[in-house]
From TrEMBL:
Its cofactor is [4Fe-4S] cluster; Mo-bis(molybdopterin guanine dinucleotide). Residues 12-24 have a biased composition (Basic and acidic residues). Residues 1-24 are annotated as: Disordered. InterPro entries: Asp_de-COase-like_dom_sf, MopB_CT_YdeP, MoPterin_dinucl-bd_dom, Mopterin_OxRdtase, Mopterin_OxRdtse_a_bac, Prok_molybdopt-oxidoreductase, YdeP_MopB. Belongs to the prokaryotic molybdopterin-containing oxidoreductase family. NCBIfam families: Fdhalpha-like (TIGR01701). This is FdhF/YdeP family oxidoreductase. Residues 656-746 form the Molybdopterin dinucleotide-binding domain. Gene3D superfamilies: 3.40.50.740, Dimethylsulfoxide Reductase, domain 2. Residues 130-505 form the Molybdopterin oxidoreductase domain.
Length: 773
């Protein structure tokens, strides 16, 4: 039986997490982050994945200088001081999830139709284990059946060659693809003739990239881990570090011990803003000794970060009239433009407005401003709580404004530091995954690779979904990831994928995107990062770039999950050769030895000179950041202050600003359990965290079922029924729940005008007691 058609109620509201085996539970969590709670959780997980022997062995190989593989989890940099065991609970879970002994072979697909699998939870799908051989969808039986690699490539090649225009295909990347595969992938798309290269960044840090580019002429942060180790003040905005970048806890605890100030800006008081027990500090672990990881919490309202930053600037500028040293006037004069306009905008923004829009009192903003003013060196770090908003670009630019006021750029211990998501999402951009490539990049690609790349911009994630719905994009290729669930407007995204002639998913595990597919569909299984990649010239390694622009090699150590798996570069080359029979690009030769790919990359990419040698240095190399050296590739040649007006983010009466986020026990669309340890939740994902007063106003008590209705920019509405309300410490007017379930509520038209990012942290919602059924 096929799942219900899109647009029908219930069509996309399957459970994503495992079936809960207990009653929903909520009790606020007050223990330190990491520590024994994390250790216990890791061992339980290793037992469940039956990886007790291999798990620890692999973990000892993770994130090591001189060999080992890069943790495929988050993009937090490895400790460069030669730390022997730089890992975290969630990294271990992530690696173990890939190394599971369970397998999804042809027998599995013979036993279960696609219609049947569509009824399974997303947890159950991934929990079947690793994919083992290429499969093709057979519409007559509604089953996936085996297909040889050669026939699979022929099928894709024929379909791509049969298009009226290469722009009828779109090539998605999820951010764990290594740099070499990334380079081949974009080369293939551009040789075919399209810049349709949507990626998970379109939903993640697009706003950060665009803002930093506009202000500083670089799309990335400028600081590294050494800077984190020497700064006087850290501002941590919109990130749940204890769950999503747990190794940051080490840096926070060290900063605290050093006497640095740590200000957390978040509507929720997250675990990382309190205390931690560092898991690899054996003495602390044994003594249960915890260290503080925060000195001030500012519970900003959803979307209120720009107003808060404006308030800090206003306070610093006010103070400068009495004490000119509050500003670094010399830096401002020499390296920036637009200061006078910005000063005027700050003066013109009233404190009432700043308090109302930020949701933080003037007194608290002044405390933060004092910390900023008193620090010789400051770092401001942020993640999705800042970027996934309508005014994400303006907000990140306001962060840069604050930094520029005191010359917090281009010197040790100071600067902007976005926390990136997927382990190589930053490398994907660096190596050419960009639907809006610069002409400079295309010129070099054209010269070095002797192709004629298209010049018009391509489609991003939302653009691709819309084009698939219209029938303008007919072939979707997913290089990793889980597009069906990660993208906004689940119903529309399902319909879009089903409207394709062909969907191709290159994956390691079974997921929803294999079941929501085009008329023809392929599952192409690939090696994971932990596995040996054996090619003609020997074992290959791939390079990755972390959040702080460090590029290093990652070498898999494990026997592949199946002898039929291909590496991602090999899959791309296979498709390229079938789709471009007259190509002069040496696809097969590249795959024999990835050094050859790197030699070409060295000629095309800025900062990759002498790539093969430098990437083999013990810690790899750092890509030069011109802005760190106070070289600004902006039109003015200077760091540009921006003077945008404050947006109105206060929810209309009766509505709430609802943000979607991850639980502790999930990796994006992969849900390990229904628990969210640091928020005190067990056995529950269909919940909404609300302010207690907002609950009372609606006549709601803890665990009462509610209906959540979102209103999109175009006035259309979407509903989720029967979620449970949980009273939580967050500002009035704000609410929070889990992704990807809540993507059902985010309309395709609800994306930022500034960044094109879906508004995943600000759904306009009404929440009411559930209608009696
Ligand atoms: N274990 C684990 N690690 C991960 C991931 C994972 O799923 N699991 N995902 C990876 C990926 S791809 C990414 S992009 C990162 C994501 O890392 P995070 O950005 O931490 O991801 P979210 O869970 O979405 O949490 C967003 C945080 O922003 C806060 N927030 C919400 N709205 C606002 C706001 O308006 N202002 C402010 N200041 N804060 C706000 C929320 O309370 C929450 O703490 O993590 C990466 N690492
Ligand atoms: N509502 C809401 N939606 C969001 C967000 C949010 O905060 N709120 N966050 C957004 C963000 S920041 C991101 S980054 C996206 C994430 O979007 P995606 O990157 O598309 O999703 P993932 O869940 O990370 O993808 C998991 C799948 O990747 C495949 N995979 C794992 N390892 C490998 C590998 O080594 N190679 C290959 N080829 N495949 C592999 C597995 O099959 C697995 O099922 O979601 C976005 N969606
Ligand atoms: Mo992300």
């Amino acid at each position: 039986m096929r799942p219900e058609e899109p647009g029908q109620p219930g069509a996309v509201e399957e459970r994503v997490g495992p079936r809960a085996d207990g009653e929903p539970f909520f009790h606020p969590y007050h223990h330190p982050a990491a520590g024994w709670g994390a250790a216990k959780s890791v061992s339980k997980f290793l037992v469940r994945e039956r990886a007790l022997v291999e798990g620890p062995r692999a973990i000892m190989k993770m994130n090591h200088e001189n060999g080992g593989f890069d943790c495929p989890g988050c993009a937090w940099p490895d400790d460069t001081k030669g730390l022997r065991l730089d890992l975290c609970e969630n990294g271990v879970k992530h690696v173990t999830w890939e190394m599971t002994r369970k397998r999804v072979g042809r027998e599995f697909f013979a036993a279960h139709s696609v219609g049947e699998l569509a009824e399974w939870s997303d947890f159950a799908l991934e929990d079947q284990g690793r994919l083992t051989e290429p499969m093709v969808y057979d519409p007559d039986s509604d089953h996936y059946v085996p297909i040889s690699w050669r026939h699979a490539f022929d099928l894709v090649g024929r379909a791509l060659r049969g298009l009226d225009s290469p722009n009828q295909a779109s090539f998605y990347t999820s951010g764990r693809l290594g740099n070499e595969a990334t380079f081949l992938y974009q080369l293939m798309a551009r040789e075919l003739g399209t810049n349709n290269l949507p990626d998970c960044s379109n939903m993640c840090h697009e706003a950060s990239g665009r803002a930093l580019d506009a202000s500083l002429g670089t799309g990335k942060g400028t600081v590294d881990l050494q800077d984190w180790g020497t700064t006087d003040a850290l501002f941590i905005m919109g990130v749940n570090a204890a769950s999503n970048a747990p190794r940051m806890l080490t840096a926070l605890a060290a900063a605290y011990k050093r006497g640095a100030q740590i200000v957390h800006v978040n509507p929720l008081i997250e675990a990382a803003s309190r205390r931690t027990i560092i898991p690899h500090d054996f003495v602390d672990m044994a003594a249960c000794h915890s260290t503080r990881t925060g000195t001030l919490n500012l519970q900003v309202r959803v979307g209120g970060d720009m107003a808060l930053m404006r308030g800090i600037s206003k306070a610093v500028l006010d103070q400068a009239t009495a004490d000119p040293k509050s500003l670094d006037q010399e830096f401002i004069d020499r390296y920036t433009s637009g200061f006078e306009d910005y000063r005027k905008v700050c003066e013109a923004t009233s404190w009432e407005e700043i308090e109302r829009q930020s949701g933080v009192s003037r007194a608290d903003i002044l405390r933060a401003a004092r910390i900023y003013r008193d620090a010789d060196r400051s770092i401001i770090s942020w993640c999705l709580g800042v970027s996934q908003h309508e005014h994400g670009v303006d907000t990140v630019r306001e962060i840069v404004n604050v930094l520029l006021l005191r010359g917090n750029l281009g010197r040790e211990g100071a600067g902007p530091s976005p926390v990136r998501g997927h382990s190589n999402v930053q490398g994907n951009r660096t190596c050419g995954i960009d639907h809006r490539p610069t002409s400079q990049f295309l010129d070099r690609l054209a010269t070095v690779c002797e192709i004629d790349p298209p010049r018009e911009h391509g489609l991003d994630t939302v653009g691709t979904i819309r084009a698939m719905l219209r029938g303008d994009v007919k072939i979707f290729v997913g290089m990793g990831g889980n597009f069906a669930l990660a993208a906004p407007d689940t119903r529309a995204t399902y319909e879009a994928l089903r409207n394709c002639d062909l969907t191709v998913q290159v994956s390691t595990k079974l997921n929803r995107s294999h079941l929501v597919h085009g008329r023809q569909a392929l599952i192409l299984p690939c090696l994971g990062r932990t596995e040996k990649d054996h090619q003609r010239c020997g074992i290959q390694s791939t390079s990755v770039e972390d959040s702080m622009s460090m590029v290093h090699l990652s070498v898999g150590m494990k026997k592949p999950a199946s002898p039929h798996l291909l590496s991602e570069p090999a899959v791309i080359a296979g498709i390229a050769r079938a789709a471009l029979p007259d190509s002069t690009t040496p696809w097969a030769w590249y795959v024999e030895d990835y050094d050859r790919i790197r030699d070409t990359m060295a000629q095309v990419l800025d900062g990759f000179e002498d790539f093969n040698r430098r990437v083999r240095l013990p810690l790899g190399f750092r890509i030069r950041q011109p802005a760190r050296e106070l070289v600004f590739r902006t039109a003015s040649g200077l760091a540009d202050f921006s003077s945008a007006p404050l947006p109105d983010v206060v929810p209309a009466p009766g509505t709430l600003a609802l943000g979607t986020m991850r639980s502790h026990d999930q990796w994006n669309t992969t849900i390990y359990s229904d628990n969210d340890r640091y928020r005190g939740i067990k056995n529950l994902r269909t919940l909404v965290f609300m302010n207690a007063a907002d609950m009372r106003e609606r006549g709601l008590a803890e665990f009462d079922p509610v209906d959540i209705e979102s209103t999109a920019k175009d006035g259309s509405t979407r509903v989720l029924n029967g979620y449970l309300a949980i009273p939580y410490d967050l500002p009035r007017g704000c609410a929070a729940g889990y992704m990807p379930e809540m993507n059902v509520l985010i309309a395709l038209c609800d994306y930022s005008e500034q960044s094109d990012q879906p508004l995943m942290k600000h759904i306009r919602a009404t929440i009411r007691p559930a209608a009696a059924s």
